[in-house]
Amino acid sequence: MTRSDWLKQALVIPLPDDPALVLDGCRRLLGPNLYGREPGAVGDALCEGALRDRVLQAWPDYLAQLLAGLEWDAAATVLRPFDGGVSLYLAAPIDRLFTGAYVIEAAWHLCACALLGRAAPDMPVLLADLRAIMAHEANPALRALADKAEARGLDRLLDDDWVTFGHGAGAVTWAIDDLPAQPDWTAVNDIPVALVTGTNGKTTTTRLIAAMGRAVGVISGLSSTEFVKVGDEVLEKGDYAGPAGARLLLRDPRLELAVLEVARGGILRRGLPVGHAQAAVVTNVASDHLGQYGINTVEDLAQVKLSVHRALRLGGQLVLNADDALVVAAAPLSMQPVWFSLDPANPLIVAARAAGRACGWYQGGSLMLSDGATEVALIAAADVPLSLGGAARYNIENALAAALAARALGLEDAPIRAVLASFRSDPADNPGRANAFSVNGARVFVDFAHNPHSIAAVTSALAALPAKRRFVLLSHAGDRSDEDIRGLVSGAFALRPDVVVVAENPKYLRGRSLGDVPALMRQRCLELGLRADQILAADRPAVGAEMILDLVQPGDLALLLVHDDRDQIFAMLGQRGTLG
């Protein structure tokens, strides 16, 4: 049994069973995180009203007692109240992360027992159990190596059984229980790394930056919601916008430049994967996947996204959307972000230019960049295929963010410009992002947009394109609220559709019954003004796509919002139409 296997089952603390006081889970944060730059552990408790006020006092008090009993000195803690509960974070050395999670859980047990008037475990016995775990987890060799790496300015990747210092072509990886006494540090180094997060646009921005790296002749790679890729090789397909994808990418010995798409879930579950990035981008923040880990509002979500700044190395650049009020409000006061905007009169852009700080903006049809000393017109939006002639303003934002991040990675303007001029919305360069096809003289677009904000952005851009008739395919997974599903339909109506096909998503019911989601979508279409005969039904997305392709005629426009059957739909379009 490995050390980590033993630690995962080392202690079972019988938590009080009462719906008024629920520990929603404890987890280890392996890198910089929402609460701080150091790794640690966090627990989320669900409690309401006056009981929550008592938890705010009692839980950290019991944690302090346990830490004192364990002679755990100078441990930073963060108490974060939220609507309906409390989160408690404990910073911990890298060889006390399991112990930290158990200590938080034990402190909760003592707290809940006291508040519920129940018998608590004997403190000396509980401390003895925790000391045994701490002794078993202790790894002085790991701590010593981590200190030496930090002194040399080297980054660290950590999981349950392995530790890596440096990145990619400069990385070394060892089993945590088999560490060298005197490693050769001469070949260990970090490589340029960028992090990209946000509610929408992060995948496109990630792909753009990686393409810019390839354009200068280095082996660049990315981890994303679609795959992990090094050069032209896809290492794994799937949602890898978390620490596991980052580790898979950054441990590849061929890698010379890395771009990590970073999702909300990965940040909250395990923290950020790196601590020495040269650039971090936040594209925007909108309501999405709220209600988990105590993140209940879009303001909370903005704080999660902005925590990427804690993964920056000294001198790294934080690239932020100056047009997003949530991003602006959450921006760390300790930093001078590199702002980008579609409006040259945005006060943050005006201030940055006046102060001689780097920034990017859109003016007179061109993407403008400043390094603080020189301002250049990088490229005209009309020459950026992703912008759809300037109609897709969200992709102008993504292009500005990518260009500024690429500059932060040390890339010159020529390859940045070349990628923006050649990178297309097609299944090769940017699969699932407004991919354009021609079928029977109609323009057909495929997009994987999955929330009201992203759907509204796509449909608003396509609404500017002329069309005789407009078709939309709608479907979605069942793990959205009724309000969210209605919002998805409302966002799609920016396209002013003449026909909507509502498709069931049988593999993604996620707690709902067959027909629930299509019924909600159909009702919202009726409320927004479509007649019943303008709303068609399909039992799968691929069937719905085929129905639309059978109906389109020259001059029509169709948007297929695809959640499932992606490969089948792309194959269908390849057989019945052409790219472009």
Provide a quick synopsis of the model:
By secondary structure, the protein is α/β, with parallel strands linked by helices. Helix content is 36%, strand content 22%. The strands form four sheets. An eleven-stranded mixed beta sheet has the order 11-10-9-12-8-13-14-15-16-17-18, with helices on both faces. A seven-stranded mixed beta sheet has the order 23-22-21-24-20-19-25, with helices on both faces.
Strand order across the largest sheet:
11-10-9-12-8-13-14-15-16-17-18
Instruction: Sum up the overall morphology in one term.
Output: globular
Query: What is the straight-line distance between the termini?
Result: 55 Å
Structural class: alpha/beta
Number of DSSP strand runs: 25
**Spatial extent as radius of gyration:** 26 Å
Overall mean pLDDT? 94
The biggest sheet, with number of strands, parallel, antiparallel or mixed sense and barrel status, is: 11 strands, mixed
**With helices defined by DSSP (H or I, 4 residues minimum), what is the helix count?**
18
Query: Low-confidence segments, ≥5 residues, pLDDT <50?
Result: none
How helix-rich are the residues, as a percent range?
A: 25-40%
Strand percent estimate:
15-25%
List the helices and strands and how they pair.
Blueprint: H1 3-8, E1 22-29, E2 40-46, H2 49-69, E3 77-82, E4 85-91, H3 97-116, H4 123-137, H5 140-151, E5 156-158, E6 162-165, E7 172-175, E8 193-197, H6 202-215, E9 220-223, E10 227-230, E11 233-237, H7 243-250, E12 257-261, H8 264-270, E13 277-282, H9 298-306, E14 312-321, H10 325-330, E15 338-341, H11 347-355, E16 359-363, E17 366-370, E18 375-380, H12 393-408, H13 413-422, E19 435-439, E20 442-447, H14 452-463, E21 470-474, H15 482-492, E22 499-503, H16 516-527, E23 535-538, H17 541-551, E24 557-561, H18 566-576, E25 578-579
Parallel strand pairs: 8-12, 8-13, 9-12, 13-14, 14-15, 15-16, 20-24, 21-22, 21-24, 22-23
Antiparallel strand pairs: 1-2, 2-4, 3-4, 5-6, 6-7, 9-10, 10-11, 16-17, 17-18, 19-20, 19-25
Helix pairs in contact: 2-3, 3-4, 6-12, 6-13, 12-13, 14-15, 15-16, 17-18
